[in-house]
Amino acid sequence: MPSTIVTLKLNGSERELIARPSTTLLNALRETFGLMGVKRGCAQGGCGSCTVLLDGRPVVSCLIPVVTVDGSAVETIEGLADGDRLSDVQQAFVDLFATQCGFCTPGMIMSATALLNRKPDPTRQEVTEAICGNVCRCTGYEPIISAVLTAAERRRGARVEPVEAEV
Ligand code: FES
Ligand code: FES
Asked: What is the tens place of the pLDDT at every residue in 109-148?
């Protein structure tokens, strides 16, 4: 099968690439567009480190042939900050020490961002479910859950103090 021209709305900008049928969205993002914040972990759909937003929904980009998402909007971790200003979820991850080695962090933040965009007032259980496809080997998850809940509270303007991690 021949290569195809694929158009993506990538972090708000129209971008094109020439893709083979076997080119995954993950490979296109990293190798064609140089977006190294999209991490390649298992490359089998099991770790969530390659999570991006596809038309607003979190997906594992390693399982998606890029030719099947022609015309879609794709958002990666590189598209979240506004210049030097981190997104609210990114800032909460910093404030709550929710990242250690950082390998899982972009995927975690994209899953959390999708959740808060869809549901500004999630329960702890809903946060847990939203990140259940994202594997973290370092943090034990509690700081991550607390960061997402803190970002949600800040977004709602309810209060500004961080939510303490459970121990
Ligand atoms: S690299 Fe895509 S799920 Fe692990
Ligand atoms: S911070 Fe290291 S894997 Fe999550």
From this structure: 999 999 999 999 999 999 999 999 999 999 999 999 999 9
pTM of the model as a whole: 0.93
Q: Which of 94, 96, 100 to mutate to test the pocket of ligand 2 (most atoms within 8 A of CB)?
A: 100
Q: Give buried/exposed letters for 5-34 (b at 16+ CB in 10 A, else e).
A: ebebebbeeeeebebeeebbbbbbbbebbe
- Domain 4-79: which topology? Ubiquitin-like (UB roll) (3.10.20)
Domain 88-156 fold is DNA polymerase; domain 1 (1.10.150)
Tell whether ligand 1 has an atom less than 6 A from the beta carbon of residue 64: no
